[in-house]
Write a structure and sequence with these properties.
It contains three helices and five strands. With 99 residues, the protein is α+β, with helices and mostly antiparallel strands. It has one domain. The strands form two sheets. A three-stranded mixed β-sheet has the order 2-1-3, with no helix packed on it. Strand 1, helix 1 and strand 2 form a beta-alpha-beta unit. Helix 1 crosses helix 3. It is globular, with a radius of gyration of 14 Å.
């Protein structure tokens, strides 16, 4: 949903870099700032992700999470996103680095 907060991407087949620990930590950061968040769970019978995030996280041992802002028509020439979501995500990421 547009303007409903940053999106946490989750996939049962581990095609995204998110895991239970990183998701819980990100949610706690959002809660500290009272920033709403939402989750996107891809069906496990459909292809998705396949980025280098999960592989890199596993090899380097870095706790990672796939997050972003909600969009319509991702990777198209006319992506559409909410006006408030980028600022909400920016405030959570800034809070993380300022801890």
């Amino acid at each position: 949903m547009l303007d409903a907060g940053p999106v946490i991407k989750i996939n049962a087949n581990q095609r995204y870099a998110s895991n239970s620990e990183s998701v819980a930590f990100f949610k706690s950061l959002c809660n500290e700032l009272t920033v709403p968040y939402q989750t996107f769970v891809m069906r496990n019978d459909m292809a998705c992700g396949s980025t280098i995030g999960p592989l890199t996280a596993a090899e380097l041992g870095i706790n990672t999470i796939d997050i972003g802002v909600a969009t319509f028509a991702m990777h198209s020439i006319r992506e559409l996103a909410g006006a408030e979501d980028p600022q909400a995500l920016s405030s959570v990421v800034t809070h993380f680095y300022n801890r």
